Amino acid sequence: MFHKAIVIGSPGAGKSTFSRKLRDMTGLPLYHLDMIWHRPNQTTVSKQEFDERLREILEKDCWIIDGNYSRTLELRLQYCDMAFLLDFPLETCLAGAESRIGKAREDLPWLETEFDPEFRQFILDFPKESLPRIYRLLEKYQMDKKTVIFKSREELEKYFY
């Protein structure tokens, strides 16, 4: 059993859905980084405010933190005892992000009404721009952390059974 877990992976992979299932299964408090970074009016807090709020969470006895935010990933890895990576095919992530447009979500403080082109491009770039660094960091901390990497939604669903 873990007490401090991070859930990372491409936007649209289903990190927040997986995180909610983990929360429901474990009873651990869940924190969505998007809810810390974004304001309801689609602006963001300062990096300093974000970092302060993140540090407060990291100092707690137990948590699940959902989100990438590569600038703070290594810090979160230093504090967690479990890391989940959702490394799904690009098409799965694009479809996942597109499918949630128009749906209210507990992990985002506003309703997405369109597939933002910049966000879509971030997903397209994620395998080349973000994943290599994530894997390097996971490798760096592999002796201290348990890591589970899911390559498909089917593998992820089997985790709960």
Account of the 3D structure:
By secondary structure, this protein is α/β, with parallel strands linked by helices. The chain has 8 helices and 5 strands. Helix 5 runs antiparallel to helix 6 (117-129).
Question: Which helices and strands occur, and which strands form pairs?
Answer:
Elements: E1 4-9, H1 15-26, E2 30-32, H2 33-37, H3 47-58, E3 63-66, H4 73-79, E4 82-86, H5 90-99, H6 117-129, H7 131-140, E5 146-150, H8 153-159
Parallel strand pairs: 1-3, 1-4, 2-3, 4-5
Helix pairs in contact: 5-6
- Radius of gyration of CA atoms, rounded to a whole number: 15 Å
Strand content: 5-15%
SS element count, helices: 8
Helical content (DSSP H or I, runs of 4+): 40-55%
Structure in a nutshell:
With 161 residues, the protein is an alpha/beta fold. It has helices at 15-26, 33-37, 47-58, 73-79, 90-99, 117-129, 131-140, 153-159, and strands spanning 4-9, 30-32, 63-66, 82-86, 146-150.
Task: Name the features.
single chain; 161 residues; alpha/beta; 5-stranded parallel beta sheet; 8 helices; 14% strand; globular
